[in-house]
Protein 1
Amino acid sequence: MVQLPNDLNETVIQAQAAAQAALDAGHSRVQVEIKIPELKIQPVAQQFIQPFIALGPQLRLLFPDAGSAALARRDWGNPPYGIRGLLETKVQAEETFFIFIEPSSVEVEDVERICDAISPRPVILLNPCLENVSVVGIGYASRRLRDRFLSTIEPCYHLQPLDQAILFRCYPHPWQVWQEEDGIYQQRAEFPTKPSSEDIEELLYGGAVQEGTGSTAQKPGLLVGLQRFIKALSQ
């Protein structure tokens, strides 16, 4: 059984393995989400891409803008693989593997356009945030985006501390919810697809939390445990 990572290094190692497993299984678009507060993406990205740098010029990293791409090139010593902003230069014929670094909902149309243009070449999206109501809207527009593009992306790795639990997925394992019990995180349940906030609430409380119920008495200790977990992952 897959376990929660103990630190950020283990998190990245798990994410690398999950991404490769999903690609090997035939998924051409996979997503890695490490949702740790105030996570600095550039050092995480530099570690995450290590198994893929042997591709050399076949590899292209795509940052949201030219400035962040230039910063990465400078800090990483102008490596032999391509590091570009989303709108910088056309995809080259020799480029066969693509990693998007922290694209946001502002760039979602560009990400979709590039993914469609390079299909079926493999794509990894590292810490994307492609859905934002204030940018892509709600209702029909949001559903079209999900049906047309977001639904084609396999969420192969997901680590997200919530208010009172941890949501975890490491491909090929199912989605899991973990909770601290006596100082040790225990798996509470598995889900075949990503559980909603209502699903998690139902699991933890058997429904909505009511004022005056005993469940709130355990919250401070649980929050302390979550804070310890997040701190360990940030090391």
Protein 2
Amino acid sequence: MKYNSARKKYNNIYIKSLTLMFLFFIFSVMILNVIVPDKKFSSQENRNLKSKPKLSVDNLLYNKFTSKYEKYIADQFILRNFWINVKSRSEILAGKKENNDVYLGKNKYLIAKFKTPGKEAFDEKVKAINDFSTENKKVNKYIMLVPNKIKVLEDKLPEFAPAENQLEYINKFYSGLDKSIKTINVFDALNKNKNKYIYYKTDHHWTTQGAYYAYLEFCKSSGLTLKDENYYNIKKVSNEFYGTLYSKAGVTNVDSDTINVYLPKKHEDLLVNYVEEKKKSSSLYNSSSLNTKDKYSTFLGGNHPIIKISTMSDSSKKLLVIKDSYANCFIPFLTSHFSDIIVVDLRYYSDNISTLIKDYNITDALMLYNANTFFEDESILNISDYD
């Protein structure tokens, strides 16, 4: 009896200790989540993290606040990268072919899932771009939505992996746009060359070669005289690139990627002005990024609110590129075709786009996004001044 009583007492102490430790852990996490400053950027995922949403009448009326706050908490949770890695390792050990919305594909390809857009968000983006077109009738307008690996390299997906047809959403979006906007189909060109190195294996971006094939399609749509691939010296600048999907999926048994840049054989003088940062450069490439994890930011030094590129081209055309990071390795192909190229990332740029077009005497505007980012991100809504 004494043994049972002592054991029961010990068990009670053990349970209470575990409970107190658990409560202490939960309380500590809550406190740390409050006092630790929010992070703006995740180097592991190579993206900006959500900031605390503002409590506004609009957010409350349209039930946006709760959704935004949940995304904010998920992004800013203490030791977030640690928990992501723990989950990743356990999923891989369990033999799963998908982790953190990344498929572990054939031939060691990592492929991001495509999240289908809701009808309301889809329609809002169509309206915003059509309003932009109405505001800027004299400008030649183009849109290029680039399909991701999940469509072009669907043969690399694991067996029985469910995948929505991304191309259907791109084509449906195109069909809703005003006829004055030229839609650029790059799927056919990418699909034709899918056995070449057109997407990084460990990153969500296309390679410079993939961007080159899209450049050819842009030239066809815009009437520009394209440059053959032999116009460039193709230079390997890194073979040690592990991208965003490598970090997100938490895998280790994959090969590193190679980054190539296409340099004109005949040197082209230009001036790159990072307007917000008040920095200037004579190159479209930031070689110091090759010494960092985010080696893709070699192109244009990553994402910036606004960049002004002045070229030596004798063209009278001036181009506005409204874009995500897929455009960063695409833009170098355009410098011989336009006297000025203004590059705007609406995730960071908040000024009026129509005013910018007038201020810089823009003749042509290209909207270039990868489909995953375009359908998930809301920043394209800022393209129009209409409510």
